[in-house]
Amino acid sequence: MTTASESGQHASSSGRPLAALRRLVRASPLPMRATQHCELCAEPISQAHRHLLECTQRRLLCACNACTLLFEKEGAGAGKYQTVPDRYLALRDFVMTDSEWDELMIPVNMAFLVRSSGTVSAYYPGPAGATESLLSLPLWETLKRHNAPLQTMVDDVEALLIYRVRGARAYSIVPIDACYQLVGLIRSTWRGFSGGETAWQAIEAFFTSIQARSVTIGADPSMKEDGHARSEL
Predict the structure, then answer these.
(1) Which site from 97, 109, 219, 229 is most exposed, i.e. has the minimal number of CB atoms within 10 Å?
(2) What stretches of 29-184 adopt beta strand conformation (E)?
(3) Tens of pLDDT, residues 66-114
(4) Is 130 in the same domain as 163?
(5) Are 156 and 186 members of one domain?
(6) Per-residue b or e along 91-122, where b marks 16 or more CB atoms closer than 10 Å to that residue's CB
(7) What is the largest CA-CA distance in the chain?
(8) Does the residue 229 lie in any domain?
């Protein structure tokens, strides 16, 4: 296990695609601005906007709808930008045993898993940011074999979000910016050793919102329980 700031024990932060994720998850949440603008074309955007991954610097950019749609096309912009997907999938009947969870050696009951260039890393949020652990490839292959939707997860910009707090068992594929939101939420609300009631209420509300906007699918990713995702938060 390493903290984000200590992850050089696994690999150089400048040489791996996940280096940007390490920087972002340990950074403080950005201040809210009255008016935000697309970082490509300067078009005004709402607070509920999409993001692009700038592939060279591995950073997220706020984007308007037009720029988001433009770079959803494969090969658009010569691969300089990648649109962060907006799909939320609640994975019904997800198969992960307690022993497989224990293999991650994560001391809290929530985490998100990100795949990049053949490597899978697990992150768990805390009051100091996110802590990283490299996931063993055999474990990831086992999870993929038992849970077909994981095979559709897009490198760098989607994550498997796991929530096992107080007996819950919720597994979702979410945009990577939702994971940044969770990390910032915990950093800004956590108090003392146990977090405090305010922090836990905010965490529960966050995961409730994830479920509310998700399409529920089973082991076969083509089978949906709901006809469409609900957009309310």
Answers:
(1) 97
(2) 36-37, 44-45, 50-54, 59-63, 81-83, 89-91, 110-116, 119-126, 129-134, 158-163, 170-175
(3) 999 988 877 676 778 889 999 999 999 999 999 999 999 898 999 999 9
(4) yes
(5) yes
(6) beebebeeeebeebebeeebbbbbbbeebbbb
(7) 49
(8) no
Give strand pairing partners of 2: 132
pLDDT in tens, 146-158: 999 999 999 989 9
Q: Which of 83, 106, 131 is the last residue of a domain?
A: 83
Contacts 24+ apart (CB under 8 A), 101-106: 101/162, 101/164, 103/136, 103/139, 104/133, 104/135, 104/139, 105/1, 105/133, 106/133
Q: Is the pTM of this model over 0.85?
A: no
Position 208, amino acid: T
Looking at 41, 57, 83, the residue that finishes a domain is 83
Low-confidence ranges of the chain (pLDDT < 70): 1-34, 75, 77, 219-233
Which range of residues forms the domain containing residue 161? 89-217
Q: Within this chain, do residues 43 and 97 fall inside the same structural domain, yes or no?
A: no
Note whether residue 231 is domain-resident: no
Q: Is residue 197 part of a domain?
A: yes
In a domain, 64, yes or no: yes
